[in-house]
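Box 3.1 A note on notation
Throughout this textbook, protein chains are presented in two layers. The first layer is the amino acid sequence; the second is a token string describing backbone geometry. Keep the layers aligned when reading.
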Amino acid sequence: MHDIATAIRELKEELPSNVKLVAVSKFHPAEAVMEAYNAGQRVFGESRPQELAAKAAVLPGDISWHFIGHLQTNKLKLVLPVASMVESVDSLHLLTAIDRWGKENGKVTDVLLEMHIASEDTKQGFSREEILSLVPRAQDYPNVRISGLMGMATFTDDETVIRRDFAALVALRDEIRTGIGDYPGLPAGFGILSFGMTHDYRIAVEMGADIVRIGTLIFGERAY
């Protein structure tokens, strides 16, 4: 049996104190989340709205839920009441819908803009140019707090490709930070970077990730 508590402990010992671990619990039962919770983990990542809502209803209220998958606008009512952050805002349409939901429900949602950095066309996300055209208009979305960027590298064993993809994310964050005075709608703390998963998180940490999203290493292969 996979030892979730041991995996959590070893990761906490390995990761720098300034790097947040999101334990990706999608496709794993609430019981597995509780094992990680009892080992001290408090931040979990989910990618399916119904699964997130069901788990949030039965698990401790001090869990911080990050939504990390493609989010359809007709599922916002399942996700936004319980999510502390939506890491995967991948379109202007979604950003606008989250802001509208926030106005109607009195909530400001922390989000990351997902940048398409991978070679695969199947992955979601904004282009560099789209993000640069969006951030000057951040004040148009008062019920969304754009806190930084997220990305997923090309799925490959080629470390050169992974580093190239991650470097594009870091460079864009740094470029936005340089001109942050011109973007009044961005929070002062803008610049959170979420990148790195089970197979490449060590590279991500080396390159400056603030958040790593690790699932298989903690929970084993998907349960359902």
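The longest strand covers residues 144-151. Residues 4-219 form a domain with the TIM Barrel fold (CATH 3.20.20.10).
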